[in-house]
Amino acid sequence: MILLDRPEFVLDTLLVNSRSKFKVSNGTTATGGDADSNNNFFAIPSLFFVTPALHERLRFGLSLNVPSGIGSDYGNDWAGRYVATESSLVYVALNGSMAVRVNDWLTLGGGLQILYTESTSKAKINNLLEGLPDGEVKYEASGIGIGGVVSVLVEVDQLIDFEKLIGRDVPLRVGLTYRPKTDTDIDGVPELKGVGPLLGAALIANGLVAKKVEIETTSPQRVGFGIYAEPIERLSVTFDFLWVDMEQFGSVNVSVSNFSTTTTSNYRDMYAASISLGWELTKEVQLLVGAGYLSSAIADSKRSLSFPLDRIYVVGVGAKYRPRDWFELFGAFNYYDTGDSRVDTEPTARSGRIIGESSPHYALGLDIGMTFRF
Q: What are the structural domains, with CATH classification, of the chain?
């Protein structure tokens, strides 16, 4: 933000078409076969605004975006219907931030985040022992949490005289960000349909019918590191690295009425790295190419059907077009290889054992947007 000398507004939309189909493997004990094809199209909008204010060394920013989300839709008749038929977890963040230039080479930043979390899950209920067709349970919950971020920007080219060393200026910047975990309490009342009388009586006896379920979710802490450089004229290089403490995401406190328990899953630290190159074709046009990798947050043997996270590879190409000093268009096309998301669930009396993987499992993304400078 500190490098912007006038107010700037960015409107960005990511259009995604994801495709996957979970295919069951030998060893699956439940009937029903493969899941339905899970082909989804959705749009993820983002808004960003930055302005100088009060002092030449200050910048204020405001943004509204969707920092992360995951979802799946397997269908109602497949082998794993008693574990999951549909699930989603979405975060929406409103961020306010400030940057302060300490001196020519050092800038400090910080911000406050209001994080809205929404979760939906559906599964069938096995009434076979009572000679009845499947019932269904649906749980929708939402809540708001408060978080923050701190950052440091070092302009290395202000510390080192590259013109004296190599005969030309070399823009070189290094950034570091830290976002602590954000805890959000979400709650909702599970909806039951078509539950058999024996199971219904058991749920009533245990006080689990029409009771509000509260879940303490965690958006985990993360550390980001980035480098921007222009090693030769007209060429820019950006490298980013991110660490996410996914173990915090897997520790969940669940409360039903006066009963409370903590569940811990087997999520592990997640790492992401990306690199992008920009070539200034003309003063108005810049061409972009990039690639990235996101590690799996959980081992194949521990992955669940509700949130089948796997590693991701991404490659993309794009361009920026600046016909006027105050206006810029940009766009990029990305291909995401989202892995096979192999799953092997623990068998239970009502759901059986589910083994399988997704094939194909990929997504196509079109990122389009515009920038206004006032």
A: 8-119+150-185+216-373 (2.40.160.60)
